[in-house]
């Protein structure tokens, strides 16, 4: 069985205070910090790039789970590796050369993740499952925090989990978007073990106890 991991999304934090926000995340004992990179092209929103991640690295020993929502993310593999990213997850919809890009991520020393949007079928992942460390199933359309969880995406989590078993592979299954203390249980039941949460966590003053509510929901 894969270990459950909570990944607070820094997209929902205070951008003017990344160092203290990272310290708050560290206090919660979350396994990852999820870092959303958006280019204003693949998704409408713009966030930040590798230089900001490199600055964050100086303030944190947390596992940096970088989710790139950018066109042709292969252009940034070297800069994210140098910035200190631990996991680099890229969209099948974002490049014509997804297999090669994932190989390059692994060769650069990072863990490689692949992600699909709600409109993309699981079939697109099949040729990639043997080479990835993590599969991310988006449970909202990417670009913004605070959106409603798309229940239908859970069928894809189930399908990927079944394929993992059939093919005797070993990768984490992550969900991202609209995850809270209600939706997290169905994600876990479907087969996910890495749970990204942004607005649900950061809307609370006490991040430690809010993360705890997710852990409790996972144990129900
Ligand atoms: C959305 C991002 C998410 C976002 C999730 O495009 O990939 O990581 O931070 O935010 P919530 O948890 O608020 O849906
Ligand atoms: Zn994300």
Task: Write the topology of this structure.
Blueprint: E1 5-8, H1 18-27, E2 32-38, H2 50-57, E3 63-69, H3 77-83, E4 87-91, H4 98-107, E5 111-116, E6 134-138, H5 154-166, E7 172-176, H6 183-190, E8 194-197, H7 199-202, H8 207-219
Parallel strand pairs: 1-8, 2-3, 3-4, 4-5, 5-6, 6-7, 7-8
D-xylitol-5-phosphate binds near residues 140, 143, 176, 198 and 199.
Describe the protein in words:
- With 220 residues, this protein is of the alpha/beta class.
- It has a single domain, classed as TIM Barrel.
- The chain has helices at 18-27, 50-57, 77-83, 98-107, 154-166, 183-190, 199-202, 207-219; strands spanning 5-8, 32-38, 63-69, 87-91, 111-116, 134-138, 172-176, 194-197.
- The protein has an eight-stranded parallel beta sheet.
- α6 links the parallel β7 (172-176) and β8 (194-197).
- α2 (50-57) packs parallel to α3 (77-83) and α5 (154-166) packs parallel to α6.
- It is globular and about 45 Å long.
- The chain starts with a strand and ends with a helix.
- The mean pLDDT is 97.
- Bound molecules: D-xylitol-5-phosphate and zinc ion.
- Residues 9, 34, 36, 67, 176, 196 line the site of zinc ion.
- Its cofactor is Fe(2+); a divalent metal cation; Mn(2+); Zn(2+).
- It is an enzyme of class 5 (isomerase).
- Substrate binds at residues 9, 67, 143-146, 176-178, 198-199.
- One of its GO terms (cellular component) is cytoplasm.
- One of its GO terms (biological process) is pentose-phosphate shunt.
